[in-house]
Amino acid sequence: MSDQGTALVLGGGGITGIAWEIGLLAGLAEAGVDLSGADFVVGTSAGSVVGAQVTSGAELEELYARQLEPATGETAARLNRATLAQFGWAMLRTRGDHAAFRRRIGSIALAAEKAGLTPSEQERLDVIGARLVSTEWPERPFVVTAVDAESGKFRTFDRESGVPLVSAVAASCAVPGVYPPVSIDGSRYVDGGMRSAANADVAQGYDRLVVLAPIPRGIGPIASVDAQVTGLIARVAVVSPDRHSKAAIGKNVLDPAARASSAEAGRAQAMTVAQQVAGVWTG
User: Under a CB-based contact definition with an 8 Å cutoff, are residues 260 and 233 in contact?
Assistant: First the structure.
């Protein structure tokens, strides 16, 4: 990694997280703080979708307008109580062993797929491909995070990985129990958010870092954003949903019906954090 320059970290947070982050980015650019030209971009789960779009060269206003389109034909997904209970049990059984926790979560994802509780892998790849502006890796430095479902190992993908962009993003967005693990290089991968909702430490070495984190707090072995950025670099700003954004996002982050309101709330919130972000990015 570089020992200087700017890094933009885009965290996970479902469909509404994608919308909120794009709204925030558009609003910040309007306020004179354009983060889309970051020297290095890290995307986890929802953030991998946003990162792929931003680094593709697409205009932020165009991306924002897409978030406001009616969610016709899209159905809401949800992490059900049974799956959440399995997550909790995995945390209890693997306390202190983070890789073991991720292996258990991976086994939950594989079992749900085998039981027919998730869409097919190809269906999911098609959905992700439709969300991206381009299906080719950008020339700019961009990293996507994921977790090996069987080994529990954390992995990053970039242009040099030889992995299709759509596959990398779909893997990073593969919420266990909701979406199927994605096949890459003979392994199956699940959501990068199973290690951390943002994986901000991947940007280690950059001296100016902005983290957009729809879900900033960690649970058990899932690292929080604050824990990862503490002492990481000299200048950092973490932005997470404020009260109005939380209300707009609602309780189900996988509900496309809340996409437009989440984008609008993110854009409105940008006005309140622009000075803080500018102090890190350009100060």
Answer: no
**Bridge partners (DSSP) listed for residue 145:** 156
- Cβ proximity of 248 and 2 under 8 Å: no
CB distance 172 to 128 below 8 Å:
no
Beta-strand relationship, 208-212 and 6-10: parallel
Between 46-55 and 165-172, two packed helices, what is the crossing angle to 10 degrees? 150
Q: Which residues pair with 185 in a beta bridge?
A: none
Q: How far apart are CA 268 and CA 33, in angstroms?
A: 14
- 46, 55, 92, 203 from 221: Cα distances, Å: 20, 30, 10, 20
For residues 116 and 260, give the distance between their C-alpha atoms in angstroms, rounded to a whole number.
Answer: 31
Residue found by looking up tokens 């980015």 in the block: 25
**What is the model's pTM?**
0.94
Question: How, if at all, do strands 142-148 and 40-43 pair?
Answer: parallel
Question: Over the stretch 10-37, which tens digit does the pLDDT of each residue have?
Answer: 999 999 999 999 999 999 999 999 999 9
CA 17 to CA 246: how far, in whole Å? 10
Q: Are 148 and 130 in contact (CB under 8 A)?
A: no
